[in-house]
Amino acid sequence: MNDLDFTTIYKKYSPGIYRVCLGYVNDPMQAQDLLQETFINVWKSISSFRQESALSTWIFRIATNVCLRHIEKSKRIVFTELPFQVEDIREQHSDNKIKLLYQCISSLEESERLIISLVLEDLPQAAIAEIIGLNVGNIRVKIHRIKDKLSKKIKAHGQFE
Amino acid sequence: MDNSNELQEIWKSVSLKELPESREMIDLIHNHRNKKLKNFLLLILSSVFFVATMIWVIYTSASFNIIARIGAVLMLISCLILLATNFNSFQRFYNLTACSNKEFLLFLQQTKKRRLFFYKNTQLVLLIFCVTGLFMFLTHLIARNLTLAIAVYAGYSVYFLVMWFYVRPKVYKKGIQKLSRSIEKVERIALQFENNNS
To answer: Quick check: A71 contacting B, CB < 8 Å?
Structure first.
């Protein structure tokens, strides 16, 4: 793969991959590391890409694998505690909304974080099923449950009502 | 949940200022590749250096007694075993690219088994070859300077005892603990997907 091809792929997919990584770790620095690792793997493996699936599916699958294998610094992941004061939240600043959404997502189980991130990236359910390795029926049910769970978490903090 | 669109809008409005430019990313990848290549070259060069040193020792020990010469050959064998093991391990990790979660779990479990095998068997063989070889090689010192020979033997004995009974178990335990944590996490995640399937 030459630099030009890579630039095209990178420009197209890096924002989505970055958001998925950020949803997983809820830490911009770690998300950048995961993004880098994803694209290093893309660069290394592009010659073995057999076009059996869409390029986007293949790249997102690499990113989800990279996220799932991210172990070293996992202690830094912010789990259930949300450091916001309700009064602050009610100000409804968009920055707070973004922070809250990403924190709520990062407090889900690993598989749920990835599934909801891919949903929010607007990937078709069939593609998500292929990336995650589940069948479409299961993914549909799972997405519904995760959305419910996420909605409850967000509402518990008085947002988006 | 009827606010999916709003969530999606918020999700996509996260700042991308921190995102590296494509040129930066290409540089990072080239650096990463160069670093890997450098590590690989370093491994090859150190292998060549060790083997060459041992061959030189055998060659220059031609005037030494037969025991010292056999000792040098044993040390060369231990060097070759170590290099073959390291090379194999390096290749294994380097070739690990795109694989499924289950394959990755299998890879980690195999790594754990290989570490245990290395700890219990390979290191023992290495120690036997290396220590026997070294002590046999040092016999040429006895005839020249007995006091120096005793000091050297004592020094090496302490070194090997500390390495074998203190450093080696500690390093192994630390590595295995880290590996077990990784396996535990990957297993937990694999279970999430299995539950999802049922």
So the answer is: yes
Other C-beta atoms lying within 10 Å of the C-beta of residue B64: 18
Dihedral pair phi/psi, residue B138, rounded to 5°: -70, -5
Helix A125-132 and helix A55-68: axis angle, to 10°? 40
User: Which pTM value belongs to this model?
Assistant: 0.70
Nearest alpha-carbon partner for B197 in A149, A58, A24, A141: A141
What are phi and psi for residue A133, nearest 5 degrees? Answer: 90, 30
Q: Is the ipTM of this complex over 0.90?
A: no
- Distance between CA atoms of residues B92 and B44, nearest Å: 16
Residue-wise pLDDT tens digits, A106-149: 889 888 999 999 999 999 999 999 888 888 888 999 999 999 99
**A87, amino acid identity:** E
- Which helix (H) or strand (E) segment is B76 a member of? helix B66-94
Residues of chain B positioned with their CB less than 8 A from the CB of A45: 97-98
Distance (Å) from the alpha carbon of A64 to chain B's nearest alpha carbon: 10
The CA distance from A71 to the nearest CA of chain B, in Å, is 6
CB A68 within 8 A of CB A34: no
CB contact at 8 A, B11 and A19? yes
- Using CA atoms, how far residue B176 sits from A36, B18, B95, B171, in Å, is 27, 36, 22, 9
Helix intervals (H) in chain B? 4-12, 22-60, 66-94, 101-117, 123-137, 139-144, 146-162, 168-197
Contacts of B96 (CB under 8 A, 6+ apart): B104, B107
Average pLDDT, rounded, for chain B:
83
A86 token code pair: 């309700």
CA-based max dimension of chain B: 91
Give the contacts of A56 (CB within 8 A, at least 6 positions apart): A13, A123, A127
Using CA coordinates, name the residue in chain A closest to B184.
A71
- The helix (H) or strand (E) run that includes residue A101 is helix A94-106
